[in-house]
Known about the structure:
The complex is a heterotrimer of chains A (301), B (93) and C (144). Chain A has helices at 3-26, 37-48, 54-62, 64-84, 103-125, 134-145, 147-151, 154-159, 163-186, 210-238, 284-300; strands spanning 92-93, 239-240. With 301 residues, chain A is mainly α. Chain A has one domain (53-300). The longest helix of chain A has 29 residues, at 210-238. Chain B has one domain (2-81). With 144 residues, chain C is mainly α. Chain C has one domain. In chain C, 79% of the residues lie in helices and 0% in strands. Chain C is globular. The interface between B and C is large, with 39 and 44 residues.
Amino acid sequence: MSFRFRLWVFLVGAAGFAVLFAVACFGLPAFGSGHHPYGVRAVRASLNHHTANVIASVNFDLRAFDTLGEETILFAAVLGAVVLLRQTQDERRKTPEPAVVHPRVRRFALLTLPLALLVGLYVIAHGQISPGGGFQGGVVTATALHLLYVASDYRALERVRPLTVYEIGEAAGEAAYVVTGFAAVLAGSAFLANVLPFGTLATLSSGGTVPLLNAAIGLEVASGVVVLLARFLDQAVEIEEPGEDEESGDPREIEKPRESQGPGKPRESEEPRGCGRPKESEGPEASGASRDDDNRDDKRE
Amino acid sequence: MTDVLIVVALLLVAGAATAAVLNRDPVRQALVLSFLGLALALLFTFLQAPDVALSQLAVGSAVTPLMILLTVRKVRRRSGNDHGADEPAGRER
Amino acid sequence: MSTSDGWLAAALVPLLALGPVLWRIAHGPAKDRLVGQNLVSLLAGLALLLAAQGFGRPSYTDVALVVSVLGPTGTLIYARFLDVLPDSRLVKWTALIGVPATVLPLCVATGPGRAMAKLLLVGALLIAGSVVTSARGGDGGTTA
C-alpha cells in the first residue's frame, strides 16, 4: 500500500466517521438533563439480576461479550510482549548480584505482601457488590507478588514464582471465561447469558455468573501481569546482549539456567536455532513484525 | 462543592500532563506520570466513577512505574557502551 | 452548608496541597522527587477517604484502601531504582498528624462496625507506609 493510497483510505474513513458521529451527536439526550435512557435501563437490568454494582452488571452481564474481547486484547498483548522480549541466541543470562535492602523496608514489604494479596482477592471477590472487579483486583494481586522483589531481590522472586504456573493460569483464565459462556449455551440460553440463580442482592453469591466471570478475569489479569513483568525483569536484570558487559566468554553460547530459576525458565534455552534476532533487537524484521501486529489488533477492534 | 473538587482535580490533571510532556528525563517523567495517575484517580472518584478510579490506580501506581524503570535500566545499560552512562537514554523518543 | 459538603470541603485541603507537591516533583531537585511521590499517595488517600464520606458511599473507601497498599509499593519501587529512600520529616509528620486528624472524625461519623474497621485499617496502612518509606538513614539497595 502506497502512502497516497493509505492517505485516501484514511480520508474516506474519517469522512464517513465524521458524518455518522455528527448524526449520532444530534440524537443524544441534552447534556445535564435528568433523562438517562441507557442509565435507567442498565440500572433496572442490574437490579433484576441482583447485582448491586451496576458497572459489574454492565461489564459481565449485559456486555459480557465485549469484556471477552477486552480480555483477549490483554491476552494477545501479553503474548506479544513475551515473544518480543524472549531471550535470543546471542543473548545470555547472568546471575544478578544480591541486593542490599534496608531492614525496615524488608520487614514492611514482607508484612504488606499478604495484606496486599488479600486486598487484591477482596477486590476480585466483591466485584458484584462494591467498586472493583477482576481487572482491578488482578493487577493488585500481581503487584503484591512483586513486593518480594522490593523486599529482597529478583532471585527471591524467581524462587517462589514458577512462571509456567502463571502462563497456564493466564490461559486458564481466558478459557474459563469462554467455558462459562458455552455453559450458558448448553443450559439452553445464549452465549454468556446469565443463567445461574441470582442469589440475594449485595451478598457475595449474588449476580449469577458475574462473580464467576470476575474470578476468571482476575486469574487471567493477575497471571498475565506477572508474566509480563517477568519478561521485563528478565531483560532488565538478567539477560545480557553481546558487548553489553566486558566479561569474557563466547557470547553466542547460552548459559544453562541456574537451578534456582524455577521450572518456567528452561524453555528459553530450547529455542530452535536460527531464530535469533540480529544484534540490534530493533532490527527491521522485529519492528516491522510488531507494527503488523498492531495493525491487526486495530482491525479486530 | 463537588464542582469545586472536580475543577481542582481537573487543574491538577492538566498541570501534571503538561509537566510530563515538558520533562525530558524518563525517570522524572515516570514520577510525574505516577502523579498524573493519582490525580486522574481522584478526578474519577469525584465524578463518582470509582471502578474507573480503581483501574487507574491499580495500573498507574506500581505496575507502570516498574515497567518504565525496568525499560530505562535496560536501555541505559545497552547504550552505556556507545554514549556513556550519564546520557539519559531514550531522550530522542 | 450540609454535612456532606463539609466532608467534601475537608477533602479540598489535601487536594490543594497536591499542587505544590506537583511543582516539586516536576521542577524540584532530585532528592525531593521521591519525597513528593511518597507525599502524593498519602494526600490522595486522605482526600479519597473524605470524599467517600462526603458522597455518602462507604464502598468508595475501597479506592483509598488500594491507594494505601499500592502507594508505598510504588515509592519502594522508585527507591529501589533511584537508590535512595525519601527520608523526610515532612512526610512522616504529615502522616502522623494528618491521618489521625482525618480518620478519627470519620470513625465517629460512621459509628462502630465493619466500615469503621476498614477505615482504621486504611489509616494504619497510610501511617505505616509513610513512616517506613521515610525511614532515616535509608539505603534503597545497590543492585537488583
